[in-house]
Specification:
six-stranded parallel sheet; five-stranded mixed sheet; alpha/beta
Length: 336
C-alpha cells in the first residue's frame, strides 16, 4: 500500500462530522456509521444528549433520547381485544409484545407512556361527522359476483393470448370486488347488551365507544399495566378520543401535552395498525414529531396487505419501522 493509500485509509477511519438534516429549529444529525440522530440537541455542534438509545429499524438505525420520547399505545380496549366479543389474532400478539418488551423497556428507560383510547362524551356523539357513524354502524358484505379486473375494464381482455397467458394477465391486473353495506342494529352510543365472559358470568357491555363503559376499558392485562404505570417515576397518562386519530386538530389535548413537555419522538403501537394507529401516526408526523412504528406492538383484523402497506410507507415516508423487541435491546445497551 502506498503512503497516499495508507493516509487515505487512516482518514476514512476517523469519525466523520455529522450531516445536518432539516431546518435550524428541527433537525437530525446523520452519519453513515450511526444513522440518524433524533435526539434534537439545541444546535448541531452542541454536546450530545444523554442518556440515549440506539434503535435498529427496518433500514437505517436511529438514536433517540428517552427524556424526549413517548410510547403511544392506541385503542387496546375490550371492544377491540376481548375474546368475549370474538376478538382474536394479531391484536393479542401485539399485547404480548407490549407486555413482554415494549412497556418494560419504556419504564426502564424513563420513556413516557401515553394511552390513547376511544371514549366519547354525550355532547361529542351528537356532533360526530357522518363518517364516524358509518365506521361502526354499517357492516360490509362481500359480493364476489360483482368483481371485475381494472386492466380489463380499461383495455379489454387480450384475445390473442392463450388461455394460460390470459389468466396471468388477469392476475397481474387490479381485481376490484364490489362490496355492499348494510346498517347494523346498533352504532356509536348504542348499548351492546350483556356480554358473556366465558366463566359463567355476564357483564354489561355498555354503550358502544362511550367513556367509562366495559367495552371502552383497557383490556385487563393492559389495564393492570396502566394502573402500575400511574405509580412510576414517569406516570402514565391517558387521553380519550372521538376520531380515528388521537392527534387530529379536533382533539388537541394529547398534542398539547406532548409539545408542552418537550417530546419530539413518538413510538407507535396498538390496534388497528392501518386505521387508528396509522391515522394518529400520520397526524403526529405532519405536526413535526419524529414517528416510529413498533410493528410487533401493532395488530389489525384487516387483510394482511394493509399491514404490509403501512409498514412499507412508515419505513420512510412516515418515519421509521422498528419493534418492541428492538426497543428492549436498545434500552439494555442504553448509553448513559
Amino acid at each position: 500500500m502506498t503512503r497516499e493509500e495508507t493516509c487515505s485509509s487512516y482518514l476514512s477511519s476517523l469519525p466523520q462530522p455529522p450531516t445536518v438534516i432539516g431546518s435550524p429549529t428541527n433537525f437530525w444529525l446523520y452519519t453513515v456509521r450511526d444513522g440518524f440522530d433524533l435526539t434534537h440537541p439545541l444546535r448541531p455542534n452542541s454536546k450530545p444528549i444523554h442518556p440515549r438509545v440506539k434503535l435498529e429499524t427496518s433500514n437505517t438505525p436511529i438514536t433517540i433520547a428517552p427524556v424526549k420520547t413517548a410510547l403511544l399505545i392506541v385503542d387496546m380496549q375490550n371492544f377491540f381485544l376481548s375474546k368475549a366479543l370474538g376478538r382474536d389474532g394479531t391484536g393479542h400478539k401485539a399485547e404480548e409484545a407490549l407486555l413482554e418488551y415494549g412497556i418494560p423497556a419504556a419504564r426502564a428507560a424513563g420513556i413516557q407512556i401515553v394511552w390513547i383510547t376511544w371514549g366519547l362524551m354525550e355532547h361529542e356523539i351528537e356532533a360526530l361527522p357522518p363518517i364516524v357513524h358509518r365506521m361502526f354502524g354499517f357492516s360490509t358484505i362481500m359480493d364476489g359476483s360483482a368483481s371485475y379486473n381494472l386492466r380489463e375494464q380499461e383495455t379489454g381482455p387480450s384475445q390473442d393470448l392463450a388461455e394460460g397467458e390470459q389468466q396471468k394477465e388477469r392476475e397481474s391486473g387490479v381485481n376490484i370486488v364490489s362490496r355492499r353495506e348494510r346498517m347494523t342494529d346498533g352504532g356509536i352510543g348504542d348499548s351492546i347488551g350483556d356480554v358473556y365472559l366465558g366463566d359463567g358470568t355476564f357483564v354489561d357491555g355498555g354503550r358502544l365507544l362511550v367513556c367509562d363503559q366495559w367495552n371502552t376499558a383497557l383490556h385487563p392485562p393492559l389495564e393492570e399495566a396502566y394502573q402500575n404505570g400511574l405509580r412510576t417515576k414517569v406516570p402514565d397518562i391517558r387521553f380519550h378520543k372521538n376520531r380515528t386519530s388521537g392527534m387530529c386538530d379536533a382533539m388537541p389535548d394529547c398534542t398539547n401535552f406532548l409539545t408542552g413537555n418537550g417530546f419530539t419522538t413518538l413510538l407507535f403501537t396498538g390496534v388497528n395498525t392501518d386505521q387508528c394507529v396509522l391515522g394518529t401516526l400520520q397526524d403526529a408526523n405532519l405536526k413535526g414529531f419524529d414517528t416510529v412504528l413498533l410493528k410487533d406492538g401493532c395488530g389489525t383484523n384487516s387483510p394482511d396487505f394493509t399491514r404490509k402497506t403501512c409498514e412499507y410507507n412508515c419505513g420512510k415516508t412516515w418515519g421509521f419501522v422498528s419493534s418492541c423487541e428492538n426497543l428492549a435491546r436498545g434500552v439494555e445497551s442504553l448509553i448513559a
